[in-house]
Amino acid sequence: MNVRLVLGLFAAGFLGASCRQLADIEERAPCEGGATSACAACQRAHCCDALAACRGDAGCASAAACLAAADSDEDRSDCRQSYLTGFRDSLADLAACSASACAEACTPEWGLPMPSAGCGGCAEKCADAQVACARSSECIALAYCSWPCGDAHCRGDCERLHPEGIDAARALGGCLADECKQECAYPERPDWSCLDEPPQEVGEGPPVVVTLELKLFGMSAKPAGKKIRACEPNMGIDECKASVPDPGASSGGKLDLQVPYGFEGYFFTEDSPDAYGSIRYVERPITKTGMYPVTLIPKNTTKELPLVGTIDLDFGMMWFMAYDCSRAQPAGVSLALKPWGPETKAFYGNVGQVDGTTTTAATSVDETGGGFMNVPAGFVEVEAVRRDTMGCIARKKVLSHPGVLTGVQLRAAGKCP
How many CB atoms lie within 10 A of CB 333? Predict the structure, then answer.
């Protein structure tokens, strides 16, 4: 799937008005007037709150008015180009309500105008994915955020702002990339166009507050009371504990932490009675607020990986995801680890498959990532390389700690350091 594809796809909402059947004229006023189409009438009846919120935002109102008057894919694409800054969260809410509550009167294109009429016509091949995204305000908001982006860094920031929309957006983007590559002008996959770009420079700025979203692997529970610290990249666990004596504690599966501008270290979640400790590295310096997912491994999880062996808690365990320049997860990527311990083993994909070609690489052939178990404690270097050219995609020094899962996202975003 290709999130970049998604950027070019969605747009939302439209105007109309949404008139709830209320006796009090003042309560109906925010939803009266506007377009006279069946879709607009349905919005007046079922999406009044979202419509009123959009009308209260000048940018959203202008974009929505344009979409309300549009009769074709070409018209809607023109609205997207002309009112790009108006495609924002309030319009996403209106679009999602339209696709959900007014499915018969309002087509998904109201909320997801394509970048061109040709792309819009071809998108019918991805109807299920299109409808799923159109009914998700987070998927639509992620698309709006991503449209103006010119690089993977920007798109990554958008994903952190709208994490709940990622799956639906990638599903639609992936379908369009496969079915409508030419019509929607998608790049070749995997996309390695950014590998020769210079590293992004980070300036100075005020501290940034980020939200950590904690999940127990394979469970729906939202862990509370987990102690978490933001650690500098070259700090060991003990040094970090001394530097940050008072960790934050999660509530309802989330925790807000303030980090320095340009922070590029890791978030350390302490071991607890129900979950192992976790190290979650950031993939690029933090300069904006956003959401960072943290996956914890429950202690009732088996320590046996089929075809690989037993996890030894005296060592560290690592899991990596590799991404191309469009933030898609490519196949054919190898992970090399230095140093390599005598007990270290590589695996990839559906936890258990071992790479049979080399003892020092795990291949994400099924696009689900790869990792290493029984990694010696201390700092190690991991490198993601293309299997076809053996060229470097990303390289990073990360910490291995006994009994702790280290998670790293290796994103192609310029030359390897």
Answer: 30
If you search the block for the tokens 């990339």, which residue do you land on? 177
Strands 378-386 and 316-323: unpaired
Q: How far apart are CA 105 and CA 158, in angstroms?
A: 30
pLDDT of 270 reads 93
Query: pLDDT (tens digit, 9 = 90+) per residue, 10-26?
Result: 222 222 333 333 333 34
d(Cα 21, Cα 358) in Å, to the nearest integer?
68
Asked if 169 contacts 101 with a C-beta cutoff of 8 angstroms, the reply is: no
Q: What tens digit of pLDDT does each residue of 252-286 get?
A: 888 999 999 999 999 999 999 888 899 999 988 89
Structure tokens given for 262: 């340009």
Could you please report the per-residue DSSP string of 85-112?
A: GG-SHHHHHHHHHHHHHTTTTS-GGGT-
Residue 245 has which token pair? 């004596």
Tell which CATH architecture fits domain 193-417: Sandwich (2.60)
Structure-token pair, residue 85? 């800054």
Task: Convert 372-404 to b/e letters by CB count within 10 Å (16 or more is b).
Answer: bbbbbbeebebbbbbbeeeebbbebebbbbbbb
Q: What is the distance between the alpha carbons of residues 159 and 139, in angstroms, rounded to a whole number?
A: 10
pTM over 0.85: no
Tokens in use for 268?
Answer: 């350390």
CA angle 84, 288, 206 (to 5 degrees): 130
Q: Where along the chain do its domains lie?
A: 3-179, 193-417
Strand 208-216's sheet: what is its strand order?
254-259, 208-216, 291-296
Question: Bridge-partner residues for 353, per DSSP?
Answer: 348
- Structure tokens given for 412: 């192609």
In sequence order, the 6+-apart residues with CB closer than 8 A to the CB of 64 are 13, 14, 15, 16, 54, 55, 86, 91, 94
Residue type, 210: V
| Three-state DSSP class for residue 367 | coil
- 146-170 burial, b at 16+ Cβ within 10 Å, e below that, comes to bbebeebbebbbbbbbbbebbebbb
Q: How many CB atoms lie under 10 A from the CB of residue 119?
A: 22
